[in-house]
Amino acid sequence: MKMFITGGAGFIGSNFIRYILTKYPHYSVINYDKLTYAGNLENLKDFERYDNYKFIKGDISNQELVDHLVKDCDIIVHFAAESHVDRSVDAPEDFIKTNILGTFTLLEVARKYNIRFHHISTDEVFGDLLLEDPGQFDEKTAYDPSSPYSAAKASSDHLVRAYHRTYGLPITISNCSNNYGPYQFPEKVIPLFVTNLIEGRKVPLYGDGKNVRDWIHVDDHNAGVDAIIHKGKIGETYCLGADSEKSNKDLTMTILNQMGFGEEMIEFVADRLGHDRRYAINSNKAQAELGWKPVISFEEGIRRTVQWYIANEGWWKNIQSGEYRNYKPEEQQPDQKSDFLI
Ligand code: NAD
Ligand code: DAU
Fold first, then answer.
1. What are the DSSP calls for 72-88, one per residue?
2. Is 123 a catalytic residue?
3. Residue range 11-40, pLDDT digits in tens
4. Which of 10, 103, 118, 137 is deepest in the core (most CB within 10 A)?
């Protein structure tokens, strides 16, 4: 299978490429990424000399370049997005451009060649649940996004479904809960808190710390995407999650305990605007239909993740200093050279 993966230099996309090239060494991957602040080629250092892996720098809104590259691909797996809610509150424009217009551009090209399209989405499109509500989101939950980020992701989901209904494009969608694991950009809560603590700084907890997120290890998410790609039914949506609801305060205490700190390292700060109160996702459909299930417990996953950030200080220090933006992959072999390779 030849995969065209967008956003493969980001957190989940780079873990996905590692997962796919390890599990299916006979597959080939084009990693197409604009390298925004969130893209980091150091995430895939160990794959850059593989014959079946190519990185190509580009924007998903560049229709000509995407057209040139995807023609002979079997599937587009679309991770690329502006992904950070706080940034969408401060400056929504790029979220509209990439998440909506960029997805539209990809869909147009996919339609031209009738290429299978898997769209990576989020549980945030469903809005939020009350703390005292025992309910969960599932595939039938109505969309009710709260932030410019989630509204833009919701728009892209609608477009993907419309291209299936209107043009018969072979699509699938996954809506996943909060991911954590290695190579997550240290603006997101877990890597931010862990790296702050390594440096002896306090952790900024928003509002009352009672907001709840439903956590899944990135490898479990990617195993779910793999299952959908290979066994999912065309036109269907699958919710992915690992039944690991934690309040932000409890999550913070878990990290503090693992790193040998106490509650005094918490600094309560002003709340996020429009802050979603609780997410919880029901993944029964994916588990029943795809034979997939998450296998990494929250406790084990967090322990491994904390250890990873401790062991890979150079990776996140390069991000803090901005040095990661100067990283150049090793020279490709002459036969692998392409006008588009950087
Ligand atoms: P990320 O911010 O770490 O990575 C996004 C990647 O997309 C970066 O490499 C960036 O350079 C690239 N990109 C951004 N704009 C682009 C453009 N216009 N053209 C090409 N590339 C572009 O994000 P992530 O956390 O890895 O999330 C990946 C996907 O998964 C997103 O679609 C997000 O909505 C979805 N998702 C994330 C989570 C989570 O918890 N992080 C949960 C569910 C779904
Ligand atoms: O639910 C899936 C979503 O999870 C993805 O679609 C998004 O791309 C991803 O960024 C993530 O969104 P969140 O807003 O839930 O993640 P974040 O790590 O930004 O925040 C998690 C929780 O922690 C949230 O309730 C806000 C809180 N928080 C966050 C930061 C950065 C803090 O209390 N302090 C902080 O400094």
1. T-SEEEE--S---HHHH
2. yes
3. 999 999 999 999 999 999 999 999 999 999
4. 103
For residue 187, give the ligand 2 atom closest to its CA: 31
Q: CB-based contacts of 78: which residues, under 8 Å, 6+ apart?
A: 6, 7, 60, 103, 106, 117, 118, 119, 120
Q: Catalytic annotation on 267?
A: no
Q: Atom 16 of ligand 2 has which residue's CA nearest to it? A: 188
Closest ligand 1 atom, CA of 98? 18
CB-count exposure of residue 114 (10 Å: 0-12, 13-18, 19+): exposed
User: Angle 313-321/189-198 helices, nearest 10 degrees?
Assistant: 100
Residue nearest to atom 41 of ligand 1 (CA): 179
Q: Which residues of the chain have pLDDT under 50?
A: 333-342
What does CATH list as the number for 2-326? Answer: 3.40.50.720
**CB of 15 sitting under 6 A from ligand 2:** no
Q: Which ligand is nearest to the CA of 123?
A: 2
Q: Which of 33, 123, 157, 276 is catalytic?
A: 123
Cα angle value 274/278/280 (rounded, 5°): 135
Report CA-CA distances (Å) from 70 to 6, 64, 175.
11, 10, 24
Among all bound ligands, the one having the nearest atom to the CA of 180 is: 1
Determine the Cα–Cα distance for residues 99 and 60; give it in Å rounded to an integer.
9
Q: How high is the pLDDT of residue 85?
A: 98
**Angstrom distance (rounded) from CA 256 to CA 106:** 42
